[in-house]
Design the sequence.
């Protein structure tokens, strides 16, 4: 995902609605709120909410915090760098070691040689990734 200022207008609107809804739903229901609750409150599909969520304890362990921007690279042994830049981190109660993200923004992370047994489709639902701090935006950008 690109920086919020570079998002399509519909994606920027969805992001703003999801973040506002998340704050309202968490304030009303606490950490028991689900992504489905947030999506319903924001008036978007659950997939839209799954774009950039990570476990709170993982973020702390890695030295990240909610609201930071990160670049994501996938881990694969073919020597090709696959990356998706400038994702906004949002804490959410998902299993440790997991990161929720939405496709198509993260499609570039999927190694096409990694395919499901039998189906032969890319394994886009489970790929190992690394998080890196995004470079700050250039002055005047």
Sequence:
């Amino acid at each position: 995902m690109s920086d919020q200022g570079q998002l399509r207008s519909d994606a920027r609107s969805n992001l703003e609605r999801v973040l506002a809804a998340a704050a309202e739903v968490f304030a009303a229901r606490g950490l028991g709120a689900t992504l489905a609750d947030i999506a319903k409150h924001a008036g978007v599909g659950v997939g839209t909410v799954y774009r950039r969520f990570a476990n709170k304890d993982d973020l702390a362990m890695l030295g990240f915090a909610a609201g930071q921007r990160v670049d994501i690279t996938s881990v694969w042994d073919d020597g090709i760098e696959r990356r998706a830049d400038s994702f906004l981190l949002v804490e959410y109660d998902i299993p440790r070691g997991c990161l929720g993200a939405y496709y198509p923004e993260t499609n570039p992370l999927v190694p096409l040689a990694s395919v499901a047994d039998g189906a032969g489709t890319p394994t886009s639902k489970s790929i190992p990734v690394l998080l890196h701090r995004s470079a700050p935006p250039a002055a005047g950008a």
